[in-house]
Amino acid sequence: TFTLTWSPTTGPLGLRLTDTTYSTAIRVAVSGVSPSSVAWSQPPFKSYMAKYKPLYDPTNPEDKDVGLTIVEVNGRNTERTNAEGVRTMLSEEVAKGAGEITLTVRGSGVFNGVLGGGDMREGQVLSTSVSPPSGVRPGATVSVTVLAAGTGRSKARDGDLLEISYNAFYLPRGETDAGEGGGRVMFDSSNARGAEVPTVQFVLNRQPFGQFPAAFNLACEGIRTGEVRRIVVPGVLGMEEEGRRRAKVPKDVEGYVYEIKGVLVNAMT
């Protein structure tokens, strides 16, 4: 998380904003930055982009891989509004005569970058805090644990065809132990789908919404053949309503646990 400062008299801020949806949550993402803008010239932004998004091309409108979301505008929380709401907040601050406006932004590039590196060690745990939808408990955390290191040479990237096996559990309200000895309850498994081969295939980050749990995309970023990961997702971000009812999962759960093994990446070991 870092801040950008903008004075309306110094020129355009230069951020393209868009709504991004995860389950029932809406976040305002930065989908582009003008290279001649105030934002692009600031050291915190330049440092973030150089370290986590070095391939980003600001002159290409199709390149939207910035990995930033807007958190606050002059101390006003933006995680319960949409892109139009953030633009309104900025306009209000300008109308009030604010000489300098501070934007707090959060980068997903750090979390995804470590996962995508494909070099996590067995037993390593990576976690990040997330803001749930309005009206639910704050302080939710997503965590990924490597249960077994991979042996494959290829690391799963955006658009790769993955073959995986998985087991899915829910944590009843009050249950926090996601391990085998805890109170988790299995509700789905690739072994229980009746197929001759107990695996499923999907294209990383390219499947239609709702076809697979959104957590699969996050959990499989950078996964190698043979690698086993456990991802724990807060209940409010786990499943859409239709999928929950179909899987016969209680409405009010503590969270979801997915244990995923990479079988093939682009049909290769």
Automatic annotation (TrEMBL):
Reaction catalyzed: [protein]-peptidylproline (omega=180) = [protein]-peptidylproline (omega=0)
Annotated EC: 5.2.1.8
Keyword Ribosomal protein in record: no
Sequence ranges assigned to domain PPIase FKBP-type in this UniProt record: 159-252
UniProt keyword terms in alphabetical order: Isomerase, Rotamase
InterPro entries documented for this protein: PPIase_dom_sf, PPIase_FKBP_dom
Enzyme class: isomerase
Keyword Isomerase: yes
Top-level taxon of the source organism: Eukaryota
Example of a GO MF term: peptidyl-prolyl cis-trans isomerase activity
Protein name in UniProt: peptidylprolyl isomerase
Species annotation: Triparma retinervis
